[in-house]
Amino acid sequence: MGKGHRPAPSTEELAAFAESRRVLPGRRPDLGAVDPAGTPGYDGNKASAKRELKQLRDELFTFQTTMWAERKHSMLIVLQAMDAGGKDGTIRKVFSAFSLQGARVTGFGVPTEEELAHDFLWRIHPHAPGHGRVAIFNRSHYEDVLVVRVANLAPESVWRPRYDLINDWEHSLAAAGTTVLKFMLHVSRDEQRKRLQKRIDEPEKQWKFSAGDLDVRTQWDDYMDAYADALGNCSTDEAPWYLIPADHKWYRNLAVARIVASAARRMDPQLPALEPDLVGTKVPA
């Protein structure tokens, strides 16, 4: 093994890391006490993190293709963050390991008129993963207790009961064999400013910028309160939230990959065996 290279983390190491980032049920996290530029649970550097990420991506590819073949279980991955928090980057750097045959990314933007005419989960449920599939939500049903709350799109009497409705819905997914993993990519206000400025200054990134991004920055503290409540109310044993410091993209990617890999090892899908009456079959010339 070359200098600076590490073996792939053990199952126990991955489980311990995941547990360290999990929001405990019923515990409202203090987001102000979490350093977005920190790298908790990892003592390596950027280079070693990238090497480990490659190992984990290979593992995730094998996991997902095996789960696709087995067709007994599924996985839902939820990504939430402030603007420029790294949702797209995480999908590109981590989840591009998955085969398109059994994985799908869905982004949830402003609801359409048709979607607003139904309950808030109506537009979400069709995108839940079927057996053998991975679904990745880029923003999600949590927008209805985040944006809706902060922007005063509905009164508290409407959005507050949604915590329980969300928990019930995620419980139903888990009962049907879906592993639910939810990630808040916790970026600092200053790091967000730098990333938004790049979107303005660099032509190839300007398409990502919206004037509304600046309006949201003025409501930063309100969003942090809304996130803390969402995580505190909706992190359950069946559908945990994980709080990921996200100022360092390399750490963000590694942390998410570690937690997903830990869940994948617990799921442990198996390739189906050949049907007994087909054993020994010879393919005709």
What this model shows, in words?
- The protein is α/β, with parallel strands linked by helices and 285 residues long.
- It has a 5-stranded parallel sheet, with helices on both faces.
- The mean pLDDT is 95.
- The chain is built from 11 helices and 5 strands; from the N terminus they run ααβαβαβαααβαααβα.
- Helix 5 packs antiparallel against helix 10.
Structural class, judged by helices and strands? alpha/beta
Largest sheet: 5 strands, parallel
Low-confidence stretches: none
Radius of gyration from CA coordinates: 20 Å
Q: Helix fraction?
A: 40-55%
In terms of topology, how is this protein built?
Elements lengths: L10 H11 L24 H25 L3 E8 L5 H7 L9 E5 L5 H4 L17 E5 L4 H8 L5 H4 L2 H14 L2 E9 L2 H13 L9 H7 L2 H15 L6 E5 L3 H19 L18
Parallel strand pairs: 1-3, 1-4, 2-3, 4-5
Please describe the structure with a list of short key phrases separated by commas or semicolons:
alpha/beta, 11 helices, five-stranded parallel sheet, 285 residues, single chain
Structure summarized in a few sentences:
With 285 residues, the chain is an alpha/beta fold. 45% of the residues lie in helices and 11% in strands. Helix 4 links the parallel strand 2 and strand 3 (134-138).
